[in-house]
């Protein structure tokens, strides 16, 4: 039987035929179900086509219902055809109530026990005699002559025999020592098979059949009829658990007991596993006998294992199936309750009347549809299901209405009318309190019965009870849960994203501008592939920040960063020429520092702060890729190019011809552009041919000889692109790539350098990513090395899981032993250390399984709106690598973040009930005007400044959805898209699968975890997946934050230094006093005179300094007449200058001018110093994080390539004399190294595998 959530699925009972048989219906042949409407049919078919089913016989999961059904039918036929009939009964007797609990161990024991044990009626074949003196006849002795006569027309076949009789001999014991001298054995009488004797050997006289005696060593079964796979399939078909208790033995299913002559008599040593006998049901009053006969077709207390079967969800159930579900739901309730006193007939009639009246009042509560009830019943044992169904809700047509609600259980004092509804889910800690209250009520039943009835009557007569709020007690679809309002903490406002320049910025930094990097998914795919298969491509580990930084280092403008210019606001126009050449920066990186700089303009006003772009890096800086951070990206390109051809000249990445096409491609307008492609290719062909054969060496030969240095890897890349241009999905990009990268004038000596400069300057970041992604896509799908690595990793992970299972088994047994000890026991501490050691070993193996699992990455799960959550450290990532025998973890975090991807168009259509046209329109408007404008225009929802959400209707009327306190309008039924907009806010809305948000802090991710609802199907699965790796996720966040904490500390120090160089108002007033004083013409003339005098004084002071220096030099020389005359002349000039200076000083008012001039000069120098210092600090703050990441990327080295190949990949690293079959680590070596990390002293024997 097909399994759904590990339980057999039971198909619904057939529908009653409609009154009119001349109608068209939709039919599912495999199940026999029919549906009157297409909607019901497609919903049921969608359930069957989900990959949630399991084949019971093979255990294969993730199948559709039809695949699982076909698998079971084929396996059942296979067992019926192959498995010997005469062997089934002995095996079934051996398995019935067998004490071995593990199925794999039972398979091994049956195989070893019955491999050499045969039974009458089996078909066997003789072995070839090893001893020529053997008395057993051999096929060649009897038939060689016969076959030789017809060798031209017949081929030899092994002759079958049938076991006629079997005799068992007991072992022989030594009477003294009681040792076994001769073990027990069996003798068999074999006769020729009838079919064989009548066909192949029918020429014998009278068609006689030979018979002889042999033991089990002289014959064998057909190998294909007795295999472990067949034994396991026979188990799955024949066996079941004998009871529902933990540790229950296996037993033969009821339908096979009579076939194999077995009974369900339990062995005495296994009676403890037998299910308890069900309690006898209470006798019902005569008035209820008829009702129970119709409603409860099966006894409620039925402990048969078939009651655990899974019920498939259906849209409309028949009365019979509904009554079964009602019975199962009530059974779970009654199992939790104690027996309650019977109610009188009058009490029941009053209770029915109150319920009927309450139901007419609470029509808005809603009724549980049949599929909702069924989904509640079919859920696994994650939650308890409690459903109250009013017996009076059966209408005249016989159908039943069901309420999806949970209320307090009925009290024996008829207090149902006084019940309280629960808005929140009842936790496990609340249940004991409720049970205690119910017990007290039951104990005081007689005393409170009349009072309770009076309270109910008064309540009904006065005011109707408020409508009970339905409480979900089982896992249902997320959007069917009651909406409780937006998250309190503004969860989505703390997310970040990468913009078009690959800058990590907050979502709320610029709500009116949202230009995200549209190919960011390709970056994540490339990065995950390179780190997952780093040992296969000889590329050392690097984190995501390093990869993105290396990608940006190929942009000349990124190498010099930005600069900050600070100027005083004056009336003069001395810097006009400089302003014309300035280019304002459009980057958004480091938003905190950028906001600080921009706020300075508004605060001070007298000073202007500008963020400008620096000049692009020179060609020399660009060519020095070893010291500019782009070496990592080049290593990534080269590592992928090596996978296309090995050093022996064999193509290891061969593309299937089915993916190639020579036809013209159709553009967006529906016209073929074959002619345009031919014209462009004609123009490019001579240039490409010249590039690919640069210096008369073909690019394939360069790839074969591993000539990647000095930019030759770009020639090889062009060759791969040229060969891949016939693949339809790459052709358009490859055409643009060749146009931009190929130089117009090819230099005979500088072609690689020309290609590199064009690659850096002509291609955008998105185009560089796409070029690398094409290589990743090709090797992922067509590389033999990658396929081999995946297969080997699966073998390694299987062996690690096997060892982990052994440790888990030991851990369980040791934990049980520890629980039996007391802390005072002398062996308690020793036992506790043993348990702790086994737990550490299990955790180590869990981590190693994650690191070596190279299969496709899976997301953590989806939230209620279809957003997918990824943690890229979950598979295939080894954060530690060995360098010279030592483990290093310099880049000790992978991504250090949780990533959120928007829903795809099909997912949004299904979950949010919106159209594809609406989604595309929203995406276009959000790209131009921001998400807020797009959300209001397309969906009519917006939020005002006070935080109130409104819905704009067609007639321009506005309806309030959520108030400023976060309380939603209970009078409205919100649509899924309205809930998503309210929860995520318009500026953070996710509706595009190309949009990726990152959660940077673990506290922010914890807010998401708190927001998720465990009662929703999608979020329940997400939370369950998160719990298994919660500690690892938290550790990855911490590692990245520790690495970035140093940057924060440096920025804090720079900000403190900036505060010390802030301008004071007095300093700015003195500096700007010159222009503000010039109000009249006399003032202006006076100022001009003062400036002229100051200029003259400065010139005189400079001349005096020069004269003093000259006089001192001459004074040191010999006292010649010439020198004395020169000294006298200089002294005379000095006296004249001093006299002139004194005259100018005397003309001013009594030294005040001198003091003002000195103060002004000192203040001017102080401001100049502060301007220079602030410019330096702000420029450093703005570029600090980027330059630090550049330095970190420059320090990255390919240790893996150096260790095994002797040099980085870009420097022509090859296997050389060691040959192309160099081994990194075999599976044996890897497994041994992993087990050495645990307390295991010996590793299991494994087969030698190829290296990976």
UniProtKB/TrEMBL annotation:
Residues 517-577 form the DDT domain. PROSITE patterns: DDT, WAC. Residues 130-153, 298-374, 396-451, 1075-1095 are annotated as: Disordered. The keyword Nucleus applies. The keyword Nucleus applies. Residues 23-130 form the WAC domain. Its main location: nucleus. Residues 317-328, 424-443 have a biased composition (Basic and acidic residues). Residues 329-343, 397-407 have a biased composition (Basic residues). Keywords: Coiled coil, Nucleus. GO terms for biological process: cellular response to pheromone; negative regulation of transcription by RNA polymerase II; subtelomeric heterochromatin formation. GO terms for cellular component: CHRAC; chromosome, telomeric region. This is WAC domain-containing protein. It comes from Naumovozyma dairenensis (strain ATCC 10597 / BCRC 20456 / CBS 421 / NBRC 0211 / NRRL Y-12639). The lineage of its organism: Eukaryota, Fungi, Dikarya, Ascomycota, Saccharomycotina. The gene is NDAI0I00850.
């Amino acid at each position: 039987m097909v399994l759904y959530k590990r339980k057999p699925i039971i198909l619904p009972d057939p529908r009653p035929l409609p009154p009119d048989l001349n109608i068209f219906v939709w039919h599912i042949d495999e199940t026999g179900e029919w549906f009157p409407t297409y909607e019901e049919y497609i919903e049921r078919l969608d359930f069957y086509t989900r990959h949630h089913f399991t084949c019971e016989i093979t255990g294969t999961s993730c199948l559709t219902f039809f695949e699982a059904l076909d698998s079971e039918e084929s396996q059942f036929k296979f067992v019926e055809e192959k498995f010997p009939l005469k062997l089934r009964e002995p095996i079934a007797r051996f398995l019935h109530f067998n004490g071995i609990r593990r199925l794999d161990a039972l398979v091994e024991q049956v195989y070893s026990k019955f491999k050499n044990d045969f039974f009458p009626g089996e078909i066997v074949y003789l072995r070839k005699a090893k001893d020529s003196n053997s008395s057993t006849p051999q096929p060649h002795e009897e038939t060689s002559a016969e076959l030789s006569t017809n060798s031209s027309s017949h081929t030899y076949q092994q002759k079958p025999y049938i076991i006629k009789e079997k005799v068992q001999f007991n072992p022989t014991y030594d009477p003294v020592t009681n040792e076994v001298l001769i073990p027990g054995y069996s003798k068999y009488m074999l006769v020729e098979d009838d079919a064989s004797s009548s066909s192949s050997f029918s020429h014998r006289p009278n068609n006689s059949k030979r018979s002889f005696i042999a033991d089990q060593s002289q014959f064998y079964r057909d190998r294909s009829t007795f295999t472990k796979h067949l034994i396991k399939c026979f188990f799955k078909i024949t066996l079941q658990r004998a009871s529902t208790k933990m540790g229950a033995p296996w037993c033969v299913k009821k339908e096979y007991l009579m076939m194999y002559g077995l009974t369900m008599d339990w062995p005495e040593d296994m009676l403890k596993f037998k299910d308890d006998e069900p309690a006898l049901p209470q006798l019902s009053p005569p008035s209820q006998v008829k009702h129970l006969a119709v409603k409860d077709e099966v006894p409620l207390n039925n402990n048969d294992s078939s009651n655990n079967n899974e019920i498939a969800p259906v849209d409309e159930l028949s009365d019979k199936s509904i009554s079964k579900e009602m019975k199962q739901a009530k059974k779970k309730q009654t199992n939790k309750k104690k027996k309650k006193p019977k109610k009188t007939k009058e009490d029941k009639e009053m209770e029915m009347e109150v319920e009927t009246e309450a139901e007419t009042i609470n029509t808005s509560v809603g009724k549980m549809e049949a599929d909702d009830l069924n989904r509640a019943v079919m859920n696994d044992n994650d939650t308890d299901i409690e459903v109250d169904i009013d017996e009076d809700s059966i209408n005249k047509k016989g159908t039943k209405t069901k309420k999806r609600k949970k209320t307090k259980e009925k009290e024996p004092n008829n207090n149902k009318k006084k019940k309280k509804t629960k808005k929140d889910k009842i936790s496990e800690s609340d249940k004991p309190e409720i049970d205690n209250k119910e017990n007290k009520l039951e104990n005081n039943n007689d005393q409170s019965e009349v009072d309770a009835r009076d309270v109910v009557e008064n309540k009904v007569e006065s005011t109707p009870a408020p409508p009970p709020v339905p409480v979900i007690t089982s896992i249902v679809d997320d959007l069917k849960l009651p909406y409780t309002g937006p998250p309190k903490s503004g969860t989505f406002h703390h997310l970040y994203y990468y913009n078009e320049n690959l800058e990590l910025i907050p979502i709320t930094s610029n709500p009116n501008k949202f230009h995200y990097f549209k190919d960011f998914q390709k970056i994540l795919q490339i990065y995950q592939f390179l780190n997952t298969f780093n040992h296969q491509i000889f590329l050392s580990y690097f984190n995501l920040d390093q990869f993105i930084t290396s990608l940006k280092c190929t942009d000349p403008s990124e190498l010099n960063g930005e600069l900050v210019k600070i100027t005083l606001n004056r009336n003069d126009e001395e810097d006009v020429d400089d302003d014309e050449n300035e280019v304002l920066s459009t980057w958004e990186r480091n938003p905190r520092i950028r906001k600080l700089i921009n706020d300075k303009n508004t605060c001070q006003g007298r000073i202007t702060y500008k963020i400008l772009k620096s000049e692009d890096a020179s060609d020399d800086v660009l060519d020095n890729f070893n010291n500019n951070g782009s070496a990592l990206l080049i290593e990534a390109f080269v590592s992928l190019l090596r996978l296309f051809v090995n050093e022996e000249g064999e193509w290891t990445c061969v593309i299937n011809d089915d993916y190639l096409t020579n036809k013209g491609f159709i553009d967006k307008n529906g016209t073929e552009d074959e002619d345009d492609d031919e014209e462009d290719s004609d123009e490019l062909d001579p240039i490409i041919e010249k590039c690919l054969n640069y210096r008369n060496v073909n690019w394939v030969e360069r790839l074969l000889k591993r000539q990647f240095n000095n930019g030759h890897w770009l020639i090889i890349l062009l060759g791969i692109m040229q060969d891949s241009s016939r693949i339809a999905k790459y052709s358009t990009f490859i055409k643009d790539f060749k146009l931009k990268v190929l130089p117009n004038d090819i230099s005979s000596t500088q072609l690689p350098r020309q290609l590199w400069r064009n690659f850096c300057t002509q291609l955008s970041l998105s185009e560089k990513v796409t070029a690398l992604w094409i290589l990743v896509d090709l090797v992922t799908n067509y590389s033999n090395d990658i396929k081999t690595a995946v297969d080997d990793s699966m073998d390694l992970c299987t062996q690690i899981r096997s060892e982990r299972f052994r440790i888990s088994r030991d851990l369980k047994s040791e934990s049980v032993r520890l629980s039996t000890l007391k802390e005072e026991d002398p062996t308690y501490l020793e036992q506790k250390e043993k348990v702790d050691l086994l737990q550490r070993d299990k955790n180590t193996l869990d981590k190693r399984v994650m690191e070596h699992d190279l299969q496709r990455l899976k997301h953590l799960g989806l939230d209620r709106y279809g957003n997918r959550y990824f943690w890229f450290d979950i598979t295939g990532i080894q954060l530690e690598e060995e360098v010279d025998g030592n483990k290093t973890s310099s880049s000790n975090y992978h991504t250090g973040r949780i990533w959120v991807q928007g829903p795809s168009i099909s997912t949004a259509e299904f979950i949010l009930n919106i159209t594809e046209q609406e989604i595309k329109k929203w995406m276009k408007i959000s790209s131009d005007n921001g998400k807020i404008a797009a959300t209001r225009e397309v969906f009519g929802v917006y939020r005002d400044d006070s935080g109130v959400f409104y819905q704009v209707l067609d007639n321009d009327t506005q309806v309030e959805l959520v108030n400023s306190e976060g309380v939603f309008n209970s009078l409205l039924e919100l649509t899924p898209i309205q809930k998503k907009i309210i929860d995520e806010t318009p500026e953070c809305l996710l509706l595009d699968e190309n949009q990726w948000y990152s959660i940077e802090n673990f506290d922010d991710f914890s807010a998401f975890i708190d927001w998720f609802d465990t009662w929703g199907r999608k979020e329940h699965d997400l939370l369950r997946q998160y719990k298994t790796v919660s500690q690892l996720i938290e550790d990855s966040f911490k590692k990245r934050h520790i690495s970035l904490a140093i940057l924060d500390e440096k920025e804090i120090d720079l900000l403190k230094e900036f505060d010390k160089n802030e301008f004071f108002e007095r300093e700015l007033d003195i500096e700007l006093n010159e222009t503000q004083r010039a109000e009249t013409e006399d003032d202006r003339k006076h100022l001009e005179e003062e400036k002229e005098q100051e200029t003259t004084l400065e010139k005189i002071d400079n001349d005096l300094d020069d004269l003093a220096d000259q006089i001192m030099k001459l004074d040191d020389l010999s006292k010649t007449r010439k020198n004395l005359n020169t000294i006298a002349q200089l002294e005379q000039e000095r006296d004249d200058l001093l006299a002139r200076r004194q005259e100018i000083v005397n003309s001013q008012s009594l030294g005040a001018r001198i003091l003002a001039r000195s103060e002004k000069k000192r203040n001017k120098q102080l401001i100049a110093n502060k301007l220079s210092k602030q410019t330096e600090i702000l420029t450093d703050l703005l570029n600090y994080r980027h330059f630090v990441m550049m330095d970190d990327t420059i320090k990255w080295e390919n240790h893996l390539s150096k260790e095994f190949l002797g040099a980085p990949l870009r420097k022509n690293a090859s296997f050389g004399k060691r040959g192309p079959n160099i081994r990194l680590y075999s599976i044996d070596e890897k497994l041994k190294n992993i087990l050495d990390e645990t307390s295991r002293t010996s590793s299991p024997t494994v087969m030698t595998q190829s290296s990976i």
